[in-house]
Amino acid sequence: MSIKLNKDLIAELQSAGIRVPDAITGRKGGAGPAEGRAFLLNDLAVHIPIAAAYVANSPFQLRSQSEGYVLLKNGAEIGSIGIVPEPQYYHGQTADGIGYRQIALLHGKDCLATTVNQRCIHWQTGQNCKFCGTEISLNTGQTIATKLPVQLVEVAKYALKRDGVRHVVLTSGTGDPPGSEIPYLARCAEALKTATGLPVHVQFIPPKDLELLDVLCDSGVDTVGIHIESFDSDILARLAPAKSAIGMQQYERAWKKAVTLFGPNQVSSFLIAGLGESAESIVRGSEVLADLGVYPFVVPFRPIPGSSMQHILPPDFRTMSRIYTAVARILKQKGLAASRCKAGCVRCGACSALAAFESRPAILTCHSVRTEKEKAEAYAIRHEVFVKEQRLFEGTDVDEKDAVGTHLIAKKKSAIIGTVRIYPAGDTENGHWVGGRLAVRQGHRVSMAGALLVKEAMKRVKKKGCSRFTAHIQENNVSFFKKLGWRPVGPMENYINRPHRLMEADLEQVPEDF
Predict the structure, then answer these.
(1) C-alpha span between 79 and 73 (Å, rounded)
(2) Per residue in 181-202, is it b (16+ CB within 10 Å) or e — as a string?
(3) 160-204 pLDDT per residue, tens
(4) Please, where are the H alpha helices in 314-416?
(5) Is the sign of the CA dihedral 397, 363, 508, 406 positive or negative?
(6) Strand order in the sheet with 44-48
(7) CB under 8 Å to 97, separation ≥6 — which residues?
(8) With contact defined as beta carbons under 8 Å apart, do 274 and 299 qualify?
């Protein structure tokens, strides 16, 4: 009997783990949520804890049978379950006698993953992430300190031929000085792309010199991961002091630069649930990332044996299901999906249940302008509407507010069909924000894109601490704005040579996300 697969089951398995026979082993160190083993639930690879102490209390148990394994919950059979078999390349060796398994591991069922430099300067200074096990596997002899490009190519070619790997993940401990690891990651990526053609994902912390991201792009890297782990500043300072010291502004600059180079949905960031932050913090952080075009790869905390957090329990699966549901809704609104990622942890998906919570992409989406190309198209729409169609401006409608404003766009599938801008009225501390330049292309004005843009603008300014949100509305659009929760606060007046009325949004009507 096959398992009736559902998203909540995956979340529960990843939080509780599975009690397995002693003969079944898995990872116990390394980078990321490393402890556990990849199982197959109706051919879907799911990485599940099996060896941590808390697994002894799991309601789930694996029982062998004549034709494989069956999964039980509280003694009752759920259905058959598979185990991702040990890949054939694990038994190979390089010419100098290093086991292929020490060079790269199989993640999920078709992802080849390796830490090219297993040393991290932050481990030497005591500033390492407390949930990390990067140097644990090195100290126990499971891996080697530095993997050479020629070794990676040899393993990848063998694994491609014998085990059908489909993409590669490259990560590294932070170099000395930080950022020096990136050119080496680029060398390894270029060697792998040249030799195998496999899509390559690279993970790193934001370097001071963001031009290093161009080096990765030029080497052929397909996707990147720039992991913040938590948007709770206190949690980050306590558990990931080196990342905290980088600062959120540098992370945001790196994310934006990466999206420009690699594209929306090809940049990701781990968010670990269960470090002590609130669920609301994770959801808010996920929306920040998704709006930038960065996929928030939410995973439950998984204690790594030997790490300083090995005795901390994962979050309850009910909490994870609530978080996944909220984040999946954000992904839909922002036009992101795991299935569109070319390589890496998001494509593999084995350590998170988030992809299972995703629904069919929305036809209409709305987010901030992410690239210069998108900004140019938003300006072009404004030009069509305000200069050519309405003749409100001569030559251009661009003004000094564009430089300080946030530009939002609405898309129908992948086509940009509308835009609006918001900006602070003077000092942001006064809480007054202004909206304007709402424009939707002809032929799309019955698509609800205008309403979506206005609602997103209201939501955005409220999250920025806005207490008063106003806009000058053309006379024929006043009734439209009233339906969206706006009220007139001034008489009809001549504004930009056309009758307008000053209106104010009722921000109390803006719903909370979580």
Answers:
(1) 10
(2) bbebbbbbbbbbbebbebbbbb
(3) 999 999 999 999 999 999 999 999 999 999 999 999 999 999 999
(4) 317-334, 345-348, 354-357, 372-382, 401-404
(5) negative
(6) 44-48, 37-41, 76-83, 68-73, 60-65
(7) none
(8) no
